[in-house]
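quick one
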Amino acid sequence: MEYIVINGEKSLKGSVHIGGAKNAAVAIVPAAVASGGVCVIDNLPDIRDVRNLAVAIEKLGAKCQFLDGNTLEIDASCINTHVADYETAINMRASYYLLGALLGRFGKAEVPMPGGCDFGYRPIDYHLKGFEALGATCVTEHGWVKVYAEKLTGANIYLDCPSVGATINIMLAAVFAEGTTQIENSAREPHVVDTANFLNMMGAKISGAGTDIIRISGVKELGCGRYTIIPDPIETGTYMIAAAITGGDITVTNIIPKHMDPLTAKLRDMDCQVEEGEDYLRVYRTGELKACDVRTSYYPGFPTDLQPQMATLLCTASGTSVVTETVFNNRFQYINELKRLGANLKVDGRTAVTRGHCAFTGAQVGATDLRSGAALILAGLAAKGETTIGNVYHLDRGYECFEEKFRSLGADIKRIEKDE
Ligand code: EPU
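structure w/ EPU:
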């Protein structure tokens, strides 16, 4: 078993290069299945979910070759099955994008019910409703989702909420539907735009990505090409919060500052200094952190994927803060672990309240999901004494080289192996 061990109370200083966006990468790698040829994808984060997806599409018959840790060449011309490998696909949420990509290209797909982080009930009914509107039949049986269509025809699809997964999945299938598809109340997240740009680079006709109405004019086939993934806003935000929680001074580089506006605004409300350049942000503070309230929402609202990290920071502020989670119905499980480190958060339904003034103290804890792992690291960096974090595989799913990156900023952090 692997653990992360941190000796806290070091103020982190320096600059850190941000990698490619996980949630764009996990959509774009399956989207390459829709191409009939060879695609090269640059700036892929070197994380477990991406490596798993490469294996998942290799098991479909594609040829995948990492040209280096961050560049993947995919030859999708040799795909010979529409049935995903159970063991590979079950481990991650993003395997559901194989449904849209395979349905679009071959008119059929079979994928196990998706896994991924556990935030309570995470249905995929909007995805299936969208496929059905395009003319597909969807069957869920024996733990598998199976979708088939004689022919896909463009349709008007209204999403009950702007689901990222449903928007991208419907877009993937609709690329090949005859006529025009319109997705209303579509998700506006940067990774939705990135996936649309990737598909357009291959010859798709998608407009409106980044707004709440996306239009897709169907094409008969896609070509190939080379594409660079956008920087990861959640990795960026995690290091920005690391600067604030350790009283450090960190410059995050290779980023798109605009994508960070919801966090930048909150950090400024808390009296952190955030300096903005064309492709970097510098975060530091000169005094105590002020309390503030945070409500997660869809982009451009405050991202749910930064909620655990932000709640951890707010524990150390000088007053009462209220954190409201509106996207998922159960994304506060990490708080029990955070309490072992001294967090003073109280949860009632979708709201967590902290009175602030918390001084974290090291303890043994376990990550309950990817971003909860990040929150525990942040608390450990600020804590007095030693913190040991278990279930490190959650972090490896989504954070590239995080020990090296934190170490380069002055953190005392290492990975150890221990027998259970
Ligand atoms: N929803 C439904 N039905 C659906 C789809 C979604 O009810 O068919 C609900 C969900 O239960 C949730 C809300 O709609 O309450 C939003 O879910 P969304 O579909 O947007 O989320 P997702 O596609 O399951 C992706 C990311 C998550 C990120 C969310 C929100 C991937 C693989 N996952 O999940 O990323 O939190 O969007 O931005 O892209 C993470 O990176 O840590 C992570 C969990």
